[in-house]
C-alpha cells in the first residue's frame, strides 16, 4: 500500500483500532511513518464491529473490507487484546518509555459511561446502552454478562442508540413494552427515519396520539401541527420490519426529565420517576424546563441511552467534558489545536500526544465522521512529525520486540493481525457450514483456543 513512499523513520503508536484509529493509521503510513496499532479487543473495528446493529450485514462487511485492506499494510503493526491505561497491564507512561514513539495518537473511542446522577442508577436492571450494545454484538466480556431484562423497559434518550436498543428488545427479547423517555418534545427527537423503520410497525399509535395530546399545550402546537408531527412519527408503521413480527408495543413519553429510579422490596426497578417539563427557547433551539410536578413511568428495566463519555482511566488529563485539548487557537491551521492533548497543570501542550475520533468528541456521529476526524487529526500529527527529529536510530522491529517482551512479562497475550486473519477464516468457514450470514466467536477463550491449534 505505502511501499513506494519514502520512510520517515518515525514510529507512531495509535491506541484504539476503531474507524478513527484505522483510517488515521492509513494516513500515517502514507506519510511514511511506521504505526504500532494497539487495541483493547482481540478484533479490530471498535463500534463499527461491535456497535453497529448486528444484522446490518452488508454495511458491516463493507466497512470490514476497507479495514482489512488497511490492516494488511506491512507498516501497520496491529496488536489486539492490549489494554492501555492506569488500571490496565500497561500504562500510557510505561508504553511511552518502552516504545519511545515519535508520537502517540489516542483513538480509544468513548468507553466511559454516562448516567444522569439520579438516585438508584446502580440497581440491577439499570444499564448503560453501550454495555447492552456490546452484549448483543458479542464483544467479550460483555457477551458473557447477564443482563436482567424484564417486560417493561424504559429507555432514556431519543436518538439512534435508543432505536438500536429498542430494535433488540422488540425483535430479539420480544418484551411487552418499550418506552422511550425524552426530556424535550417530539420535534426534538434525534433518531433518523432510516433507523426507526426497524421498530416502526411496533409503535402503539393509540398511545402516541394520547401522548401527543397530553403534551400539546406545553410544546405550543395547535391541532394541525400535532397532526403533522403524528404523521411524521408514524410514517413507516405499515412497513413490515425485515426482522419479522413482534408483539412488543413501543411508546413515547415526552417532556419528562428523569429524577429517580423507584424500586420494589427486592431492590429491582419498578418505575422511573420523571419531572414534567416544558420547552423554553434557547438560541435557535429549545431546552427543557422543570415544572416541579412528577409522574411515575412504570418500568422494570431502565436503560440510559444519553451518550458516552471518554474513559479517564486511560491516563490523559481531563478537560471540560472529555480529555483536555489545547485551548489556544492555532492561527495557521484553525481547529488543529483540538487534536493536541493539553496538560492543564503545566499549562502546556503535551508534546507528541494527540486525540482523534470519539476520544476527542464523544458520541459524535457515524463511521464516516469518525474517519474524517481520524484523518484530520492525523494531518495535524503529520505536520508535527515534520518538525521533530527521530527519537532514536532504533528500528521499529527493535521497539516492537521490546513491547512484545514487556507485554509477555505482564501476562498479556497479544494477538497479531495474522492471528485476526486466521480467526476470521475459521469464522467464515463455520458460517458457511451452518449456512448462516455471519458467525463470530463470542469469548476470548474460544478465540485463543482456535489460535493455539
Ligand atoms: C449503538 C451504536 C450504533 C451505531 N450504529 C452506526 C451505524 O449504523 N452506522 C454508522 O456509520 N455508525 C454507527 N455508529 C457510530 C460509529 O460506530 C462510531 O462513529 C465510530 O465507531 C467511532 O469510532 P472511534 O474509532 O472514534 O471509536 P470506537 O469505534 O469506539 O473504537 C475505539 C477502539 O479503541 C479500543 N480501545 C478502547 N479503549 C482502549 C484502551 N484503553 N486501550 C487500547 N484500546 C482501547 C476499542 O477496543 C475500540 O476498538 C454507532 C454507534 C453506536 C454506539
Folded structure, characterized:
With 453 residues, this protein is α/β, with parallel strands linked by helices. The protein has 2 domains: 11-111 and 309-415, NAD(P)-binding Rossmann-like Domain (Rossmann fold, 3-Layer(aba) Sandwich), CATH 3.40.50.720; 115-306, 3-Layer(bba) Sandwich (FAD/NAD(P)-binding domain), CATH 3.50.50. 34% of the residues lie in helices and 22% in strands. The chain is built from 13 helices and 18 strands. It has helices at residues 19-30, 47-50, 57-71, 92-99, 129-136, 160-173, 193-200, 205-215, 223-233, 367-387, 396-409, 417-434, 444-452; strands at 11-15, 34-39, 76-80, 103-106, 112-113, 126-128, 152-156, 177-181, 249-253, 256-263, 269-282, 285-298, 301-304, 308-309, 318-319, 322-323, 340-343, 348-355. It has a 6-stranded mixed beta sheet, with helices on one face. A 5-stranded parallel beta sheet has the order 6-13-7-8-9. Strands 10-11-12 form a 3-stranded antiparallel beta sheet, with no helix packed on it. Helix 6 links the parallel strand 7 and strand 8. The longest helix has 21 residues, at 367-387. The protein is globular, with a radius of gyration of 24 Å. Bound molecules: flavin-adenine dinucleotide. Flavin-adenine dinucleotide is lined by residues 15-21, 38-41, 46-48, 51-52, 56, 83-85, 107-109, 111, 133, 161, 164, 314, 357-358, 365-367, 369-370.
Amino acid at each position: 500500500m505505502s511501499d513506494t513512499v519514502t520512510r520517515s523513520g518515525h514510529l507512531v503508536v495509535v491506541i484504539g483500532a476503531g474507524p478513527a484509529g484505522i483510517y488515521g493509521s492509513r494516513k500515517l503510513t502514507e506519510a511514511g511513518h511506521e504505526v504500532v496499532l494497539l487495541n483493547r479487543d482481540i478484533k479490530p473495528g471498535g463500534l463499527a464491529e461491535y456497535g453497529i446493529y448486528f444484522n446490518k450485514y452488508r454495511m458491516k462487511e463493507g466497512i470490514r473490507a476497507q479495514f482489512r485492506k488497511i490492516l494488511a499494510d506491512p507498516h501497520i503493526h496491529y496488536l489486539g487484546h492490549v489494554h492501555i491505561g492506569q488500571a490496565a497491564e500497561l500504562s500510557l507512561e510505561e508504553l511511552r518509555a518502552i516504545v519511545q514513539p515519535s508520537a502517540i495518537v489516542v483513538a480509544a473511542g468513548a468507553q466511559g459511561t454516562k448516567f444522569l446522577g439520579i438516585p438508584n442508577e446502580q440497581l440491577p436492571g439499570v444499564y448503560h446502552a453501550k454495555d447492552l450494545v456490546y452484549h448483543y454484538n458479542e464483544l467479550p466480556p460483555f457477551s458473557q454478562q447477564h443482563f436482567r431484562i424484564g417486560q417493561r423497559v424504559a429507555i432514556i434518550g431519543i436518538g439512534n442508540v435508543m432505536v438500536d436498543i429498542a430494535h433488540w428488545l422488540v425483535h430479539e427479547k420480544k418484551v411487552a413494552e418499550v418506552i422511550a423517555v425524552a426530556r424535550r418534545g417530539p420535534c426534538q427527537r434525534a433518531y433518523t427515519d432510516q433507523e426507526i423503520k426497524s421498530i416502526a410497525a411496533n409503535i402503539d399509535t393509540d398511545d402516541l396520539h394520547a401522548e401527543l395530546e397530553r403534551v400539546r399545550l406545553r410544546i405550543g402546537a395547535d391541532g394541525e401541527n400535532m397532526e403533522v408531527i403524528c404523521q411524521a412519527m408514524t410514517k413507516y408503521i405499515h412497513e413490515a420490519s425485515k426482522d419479522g413480527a413482534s408483539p412488543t408495543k413501543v411508546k413515547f413519553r415526552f417532556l419528562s426529565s428523569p429524577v429517580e429510579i423507584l424500586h420494589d422490596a427486592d431492590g429491582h426497578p419498578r418505575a422511573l420517576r420523571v419531572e414534567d417539563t416544558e420547552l423554553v427557547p434557547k438560541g435557535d433551539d429549545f431546552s427543557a424546563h422543570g415544572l416541579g410536578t412528577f409522574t411515575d413511568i412504570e418500568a422494570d428495566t431502565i436503560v440510559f441511552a444519553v451518550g458516552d463519555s471518554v474513559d479517564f482511566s486511560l491516563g490523559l488529563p481531563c478537560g471540560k467534558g472529555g480529555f483536555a485539548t489545547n485551548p489556544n487557537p492555532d492561527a495557521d491551521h484553525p481547529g488543529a489545536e483540538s487534536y493536541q492533548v493539553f496538560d492543564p497543570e503545566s499549562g502546556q501542550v503535551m508534546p507528541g500526544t494527540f486525540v482523534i475520533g470519539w476520544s476527542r468528541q464523544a458520541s459524535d456521529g457515524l463511521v464516516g465522521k469518525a474517519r474524517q476526524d481520524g484523518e484530520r487529526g492525523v494531518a495535524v500529527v503529520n505536520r508535527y512529525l515534520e518538525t521533530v527529529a527521530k527519537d532514536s536510530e532504533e528500528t521499529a522491529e527493535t521497539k516492537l520486540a521490546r513491547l512484545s517482551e514487556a507485554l509477555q512479562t505482564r501476562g498479556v497475550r497479544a494477538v497479531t493481525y495474522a492471528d485476526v486473519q486466521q480467526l476470521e477464516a475459521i469464522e467464515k468457514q463455520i458460517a458457511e457450514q451452518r449456512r448462516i450470514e455471519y458467525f463470530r466467536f463470542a469469548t476470548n477463550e474460544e478465540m485463543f483456543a482456535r489460535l493455539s491449534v
